[in-house]
Design goal:
The complex is a heterodimer of chains A (295) and B (302). By secondary structure, chain A is an all-alpha fold. Chain A contains 14 helices and no strands. The chains are: A mainly alpha (295), B mainly alpha (302). Chains A and B meet through helix 1, helix 4, helix 5, helix 6 and helix 7 of A and helix 1, helix 3, helix 4, helix 5 and helix 6 of B.
Chain lengths: 295, 302
């Protein structure tokens, strides 16, 4: 930290002016980041007539939740007019098992790779890690064939499998880097007492893993909830996840364009991850930096 | 008695050691099949005659030739260069600026940080949807400016073939610049205070401290940020789909959307596979040297 107050040779008044300017710039940036969110909320609460007459930034004169209701219960995705709620539950049914399985596998992999190191453990880890960086376009075509052969095409279990397989490298990375810093003596002492591989994992390692479990769960949840590529490629139709349904609603070309419904549907799609971010921002940032910076 | 006990515990120890391999094996096998196997599979497909259906007949470099003869692929590549370049540079400037500004003992720093970073938690589809609404020529920013009395204001980039790719830049910067800020802020907090204090005692001004000492010392973060952003840019798919749909026509196509269109809509599996391999090669060219230097650096330090 090198800040104006501590490191300035200038007179006091000059610093005060500079600090005022500083806050002004920061507030302008905050407005820039918040503007789309505010417009999204305000548009979703307006009627279509008011949207056509009014301006983008005008707040709704009459607040109505009709658009939210319509988006949730009635909006048409393709030919099905069941509202986005069906797809919300699709996403929930996809995300929960995929997050839990990939986090569990990541934890046990990380534990095995650090505390019970076998010959070649580092190479195994490096090979696993590579999966984090491939552009997923390179696996789309084989995956759609394999899912078809397995009878999992266009199904939620199929998507769960895809997300587990391609989430593994991230969760393994998280846990491996976390367990590296845990002293090996902890495990050694337990083995002398006669505890085995799984006993140590359940009794000693998992109880001290809470922070990294939170990081992993949040990272995986955000990734899987927000995924569009796999959803669009492997689960169109009634099993589509919410992002695919949202894109369908917004880009449908039939009928009157209902901007308020689009915005309500977008907010509904964004709400779960936003909520996670607001409640556990610290862990979210840790996942971001661990997941994308450190190899 | 004692001897047999020790062989027994040796045996358990050996089983335990194998247990570790057994536990990692399924993930490793999955990775071998779903990552490496699939890459080879796609790679082979790019050398096959596959069009509507995957076939195994060898076609040599035919698909790559067809790919590079397609006007649309060239548009996608050019767009990637324009988009990637602008996206990376703008994110770095905004991210670095915000980090430096936030590093001035700001009141409510936590709240501001939360605001700057929240777009990163959203799906690119949500971001695309809202920016599509903000930038739509009829009722969006354009009409807002008209209401303010600036009636000649025209903003039709979303439906303008020459400008559509820039709307993708606008939305992508909004989403990712806060993340760059977070990376830089973490780095700024790690700079050695004693060096800064010493420079200050020597009479260095604050801008000189920043440009002369702090920014050079956080150079590795610039590299990390560039790699992360480049990686994001090459993989960009959802945002284009939601914002412009690759349009007008295919004016804002990126390689990722090109591949998807060829593979799933145009029945050109071979060309799709070839473009996917080109994407993989691009990402590898960025990531592999970076990871190599990171891992080597890690060894040196530890």
């Amino acid at each position: 930290m090198a800040d104006l107050q501590t490191y300035s040779h200038d007179a006091g008044w000059k610093n005060t002016v500079l600090r005022g300017l500083l806050y002004l710039v920061l507030i302008l940036f905050a407005a820039y980041y918040l503007f789309p969110l505010i417009v999204m909320i305000s548009t979703s609460l307006k009627s279509l007539d008011e949207i056509r007459e009014g301006s983008l930034i005008s707040l709704p004169r009459v607040v109505t939740f009709d658009a939210w209701n319509y988006a949730w219960n009635e909006a048409c995705v393709g030919v099905e007019c069941t509202g986005i709620k069906v797809y919300f539950w699709n996403s929930v049914k996809m995300a929960i098992p995929a997050v839990l399985i990939s986090t569990f596998l990541g934890a046990i992999n990380g534990y095995a790779l650090t505390k019970w190191r076998f010959k070649g453990a580092n190479i195994v880890f490096a090979l696993l890690l590579f999966g984090c960086f491939i552009p997923f376009q390179v696996v789309l075509l084989p995956m759609s064939q394999v899912l078809g052969k397995l009878g999992l095409a266009s199904s939620t279990p199929g998507l769960v499998m895809v997300h587990v397989v391609y989430g593994l490298c991230f969760t393994t990375l998280f846990f491996r880097n976390y367990y590296v810093s845990i002293p090996d003596e902890l495990v050694k002492a337990a083995t002398i007492d006669g505890a085995g591989f799984f006993t140590i994992f359940w009794r000693i390692i998992l109880p001290i893993s809470t922070p990294i479990i939170v990081v992993s769960v949040i990272w995986q949840f955000t990734q899987i909830w927000n995924d569009f590529l796999f959803g669009a490629s492997f689960a169109s139709g009634e099993n589509a996840p919410m992002t695919v349904a949202l894109n369908n609603i917004v880009n449908t070309t039939t009928g009157v364009k209902q901007y308020n419904v689009d915005m309500a549907a977008a907010l509904l799609t964004g709400l779960p991850t936003l909520l996670v971010y607001v409640l556990a921002g610290k862990y979210f940032v840790r996942g971001l930096t661990a997941g994308s910076v450190k190899g | 008695m004692g001897a047999s006990q020790s062989t027994e515990s040796n045996l358990t120890a050996r089983i335990q050691r194998h247990l570790s391999k057994i536990v990692v094996a399924p993930s490793f096998a999955a990775s071998l099949f779903f990552v490496y196997g699939f890459i080879l599979w796609t790679g082979y497909m790019a050398f096959s005659k596959s069009r509507m259906l995957p076939v195994w007949d060898w076609a040599g470099l035919r698909q790559y030739e067809r790919l590079w003869q397609m006007e649309r692929w060239h548009v996608a590549i050019e767009n990637l260069l324009v988009f990637g370049g602008l996206f990376i540079v703008t994110c770095l400037i905004i991210g670095c600026l915000l980090a430096v500004l936030l590093d001035q003992r700001i009141r409510a720093e936590g709240a501001l940080r939360t605001i700057f970073l929240y777009p990163m938690a959203l799906s690119f589809i949500v971001t695309g949807t809202v920016w599509k609404w903000l930038l739509n020529p009829g009722l969006g920013l354009e009409s807002m400016m008209h209401d303010f009395g600036w009636t000649s204001f025209k903003f039709d980039w979303l439906v303008n073939s020459d400008m559509a790719i820039y709307t993708v830049v606008i939305a992508a910067v909004w989403q990712a610049s806060g993340f760059v800020m977070a990376m830089f802020l973490a780095a700024l907090r790690g700079v050695d205070q004693d060096i800064i204090r010493a420079a200050y005692m020597d009479g260095a001004s604050l801008p000189r401290i920043y440009f002369g000492i702090i920014i050079p010392s956080i150079r590795p973060v610039f590299l990390s940020a560039i790699v992360v952003l480049a990686h994001l840019a090459v993989k960009s798919f959802d945002l284009v789909i939601a914002l412009t749909g690759g349009g007008p026509g295919y004016a804002s196509d990126l390689p990722a959307t090109f591949m998807y269109t060829m593979a799933f809509q145009r029945n050109q599996l071979g060309v799709g596979a070839a473009s996917a391999m080109m994407m993989l090669a691009t990402v590898m060219a960025i990531i592999v040297p970076y990871l190599y230097s990171e891992l080597r650096g890690g060894k040196k330090n530890g």
